[in-house]
Amino acid sequence: MTNATSPATTPSSRPVGSRLSRVLRTPVGIVGLGLLTLVLLLAVFAPILWGDRADAVDTDNILAGPSAEHWVGTDNLGRDLFYRVLVATRLSITLALLATALGTAVGLILGTAPLLLGRRAGRLVTALVNILVAFPGLLLVLFFAVVFGVGAQGAVLAIGLAGAPSFARLCQTLVAGVADLDYVAAARIAGVNRFRILFRHVLPNIAEPLVVNVTISAGGVLLSFAGLSFLGLGVQAPAYDWGRLMQDGLAGIYIHPLAALAPGIMVIIAGLAFNLTGEAIAGALGVSPVTGVTPALRTPTGRTPGAELAHDAGTEDLVLDVRDLHVAFPGAAGPIRPVRGVTFTVRAGEAVGVVGESGSGKSLTALSIAQLVEEPGRVDAHRLAFCGEDLLAAPGDRRGAAERDRRLGTSLAVVFQDPMTSFNPAMRIGSQLAEVGRHHQGLDRRSAAARAVDRLRAVRVRDPERRARQYPHEFSGGMRQRAMIGMGLMGSPRLIIADEPTTALDVTVQSQVLALLQDVRREQGAALLLISHDVSVVSDVCDRVLVMYAGRVVEDLPTADLHTRARHPYTRALVAAVPDMATDLDAPLATIPGQPVDPSAVPAGCAYAARCPLATALCREQDPVLVTADGGAGRVACWHAGEPVLAGDRPTAEEATA
Questions:
Q1: Which among 228, 279, 301, 572 would be 20 to 30 A from 516, CA to CA?
Q2: Residue 46 lies in a domain
Q3: Between β-strands 627-628 and 635-636, what pairing exists: parallel, antiparallel or unpaired?
């Protein structure tokens, strides 16, 4: 499905060189990178330069104190402790990095398991991580050290596995913040497999806080490793690291304290190098070092999944056929039904608008059509067909599912309302458009890139070759909306669903986007389903208007009749609430008293009765059915359709709220 659809974590868009320069401009960054460079240089070159001197035995200088010849003194074999401390840098740093890498790898696996394994298996992994996080880290280290045995290998496994749960918890939090965003949901619905979603859409957007956390935790791992070796559970003789040297020097600490203090000082310096560098990177990137969709499972009632539905007469040109659509979510007091029995059709080339207040079910109806309602939502309908294909029927096999995804991906385009959150911020605009062509149309990389540039040109994006190489943040709001429409045009859409496409845009850009939708509709011959709370926008663009209230369509009428022949009191109230050039500037603006209905507590009878100036006892007892209006111009669901509203009939705000 071609969807242009927001992240809690947005990676920095600055080049790597710019970010590094920001780190180097801070005192913390300068000190941290300087110390880290020194430590890494010692790890590489110290054994080469001073390895022989560190192992040279001098029985004439056993346990000697600091001197001009031996700056830190000697050990019980007369070996120079200063050089041994320098040479031990390689093993200490290597083992710490190995343990950090192991903890990071295991943490990533555990942290991304809920995304890869699905909801049920993911819950088990999450529960395991929660249990392990509850144990103190030191206790886990000692437990694993006993399990894997003493020695460097056992210490690496113990420290790495003990550090994995906390990293997994951070990873789970970050993944959860990105996995529910629109562009990830769109990729999932489009048939992109979970591993590709993880590595292409999720991990790039959480990489920075993870890298910062790994850099900082490396200092803690180094300290833990030194502690295990000091306790005799880590590196064993004849090998030595800083912890082993501290243990050897402990016996004579009151006589020659530098023998134990020198390796301890190196542990502190190396730990500071990692921590300060991580803090500097976090500050430069604006990342906190501490914290840094599946298709809806449908259980239709009263219909057999996969059952073939015969086409009715006169439906050959139907692009969308929706009959008795219901959407439900579980609630504390029973199912909540924000969409209740919506029925309408959209024909080829037709533009249909859906209007209503927030919470009336407009967007959820569109999401149901696009199969973007997430679990635990349930979608049911007597018929939900797109281009003659029953969208609620289960595909016969995996090949059938892939074929349906391909058809939807090239025939149905969805443009959502928030342009800033509609693209993956870690990918270039052209790459995201090209991905549609490669996945759904089988184009190679070069052909897909050329098609993406052509589609950007088709939606009036200037200099499309250069723009295709830019990231979403480099586009203005209006340009992002154009690019979203261009993504929908990567195929040959039969239907474009535009959900509040002009939200947060100024009037000039709003007009341009609406004009572009009209041009696309004419040039592509596509039908348009435009969802908006703005009656004037729908009046300018659409041929027909659906008015929704409390999850139901209360009126369906031609746009030409919207301002003059609307029959439902709610429709007339929406139209009256929009000022025009003839509005009396001295009179108060028209409003609709009361509040929209809570979907979890829909009253008996007509849901609009509490706010309606024409409501009677019948309205509060029986819910009117959507029937053909007098004269055949549209449909209306109202017991008093077309009756005039007198001044004394309008309820007060208190009455409407009650």
A1: 572
A2: yes
A3: antiparallel
